Amino acid sequence: MTDTSTQTAALPHLRGTSGFRRITLALFASGLATFTTLYCVQALLPALSTDFGLSPAQASLAVSLGTAGLAVGVIPLTALSGVVGRTPVMTASLFTAAVLGVAQAVSPSFTVLLVLRALQGLALAGLQATAMSYLSEEIDRRSLGTAMGLYIAGNGIGGLAGRVIASLVLDVSNWRWALAVVGVVALGCAVVFRVSIVPSVFFEPSPPRVRHLATSIGRAFTDSGLVRLFACGFLLMGCFVTVYNYLGFRLLAPPFSLSPVLVGLVFVVYLAGSASSTVAGRLVDTLGRPRMLPVTVAITLAGLALMLADNLVLVVAGLVVTTAGFFAAHSVASGWVGPRAATLGVQGPAVYLFCYYLGSSVGGSVGGLAYSADGWRGVSLYAGAFVLAVLVLATSLRKLAPAKPRL
Could you list the residue ranges that cross the membrane (predicted)? Predict the structure, then answer.
């Protein structure tokens, strides 16, 4: 339970303080672990397709079931963190997900692998929205954009690390060893998180109230600004996961015919997401979210257009731009949800992440049908339609009135 006297004396952590550095390191490590384990299988989809005799869309279920588990668990586990505390739930989530990641390496069938992936996503659900709530509570609002940007940067580097590590191990061994190595890396990140995280000071535990939770979630959908932000998360992630799910299949085939290890190295462009989310976080603190979101979405759309070319240099350049734009947009949108939801007193971050990962599960799987129907052009049209819709929403959010507290 929170010490009231300590809460009264303490101040939220401001950029430049020791507490801010420890928190951002811990949350960076958590984002690294989450995205390393969640998306390493994207680099393994062609190998899983060959080994189990699956179509690209069927193989992509290894990604979709993981994010589906996360989407299903994010609201109830975030509510649980409101009862037992933010840091215990985040710690348990990270260690459980790492152990499940190692267990996936010995899956006797694709069905068992899918079950373990779903359970791993469910475990990671305890980290995602809880982390956003923790940052909103413990970080000074003047530094929240920077902290959120660094957290998203950890997600970006995790996505890179998972794909590259899996590809490199796959080149010398098989997908089983790749999953085992990624699981061990995630375990190391969990240890860093546990050592670095600062105990909550401004967290106030509340008893489990199912009716109150349902009401809070329902009220989140009565605010037009939050609904548009939820839609942005769904559409952005649906676009992004589709691009990364099927890009490997495209690059392995003519006219590129790259080796698996070279395809894995292409994912180094994920670093662009880490850099852009950090920069976007800093710019939000000075320019504001209404100005930043449409710009970041437009950048994402430009990257998709570049990737249409059958030229490897343009494809990689387009992937850099798409990745940078996506992570910047996600950083801005997710950072916008927390303060607005807090003002309204609703479960905004949890609902945003439910929509976000639902976009990954549904969008990524349906994107496989677009790839099967018309190759990369089908993927481009599909993902481009998602981003155009986000651009319309982002433009409308520029006229959004400030949220009024509900009593």
Answer: 23-45, 57-77, 147-165, 177-204, 225-247, 259-280, 292-309, 315-338, 350-373, 379-397
The dihedral of CA 52, 169, 176, 186: what is its sign? negative
Separation CA 379–CA 319 (nearest Å): 13
215, 94 contact by CB (below 8 A): no
What phi and psi values does residue 173 have, to the nearest 5 degrees?
A: -145, -120
> b/e per residue, 292-309, with b = 16+ CB within 10 A?
bbbbbbbbbbebbebbbe
pTM of the model: 0.83
| Tens-digit pLDDT profile for residues 32-65 | 899 899 989 999 999 999 999 999 989 999 999 9
Closest CA to 127 of 82, 80, 74: 74
152 contacts: CB under 8 Å, gap ≥ 6: 31, 273, 274, 277, 278, 281, 327, 330, 331, 334
Yes or no: domain 15-201+208-397 corresponds to CATH 2.60.40.1640: no
**Alpha-helix runs per DSSP H in 221-311:** 224-252, 260-266, 271-287, 289-306
CB 181 within 8 A of CB 105: no
What ranges do the domains of the chain cover?
Answer: 15-201+208-397
Phi, psi (5° rounding) for residue 279?
Answer: -65, -45
Q: How do residues 121-173 score in pLDDT, each as one tens digit? A: 999 998 876 887 788 888 887 788 788 777 877 777 888 889 899 999 998 99
User: Cα separation of 148 and 143, whole Å?
Assistant: 9
**Distance between CA atoms of residues 89 and 31, nearest Å:** 15
- pLDDT band of residue 273 (cuts 50, 70, 90) is confident
Q: Which pLDDT score is estimated for 403? A: 65
Percentages helix, strand, coil for the chain (3-state, rounded to 5) are 85, 0, 15
**Residue 270 gets which letter from DSSP?**
G
Return d(Cα 181, Cα 53) in angstroms, integer.
24
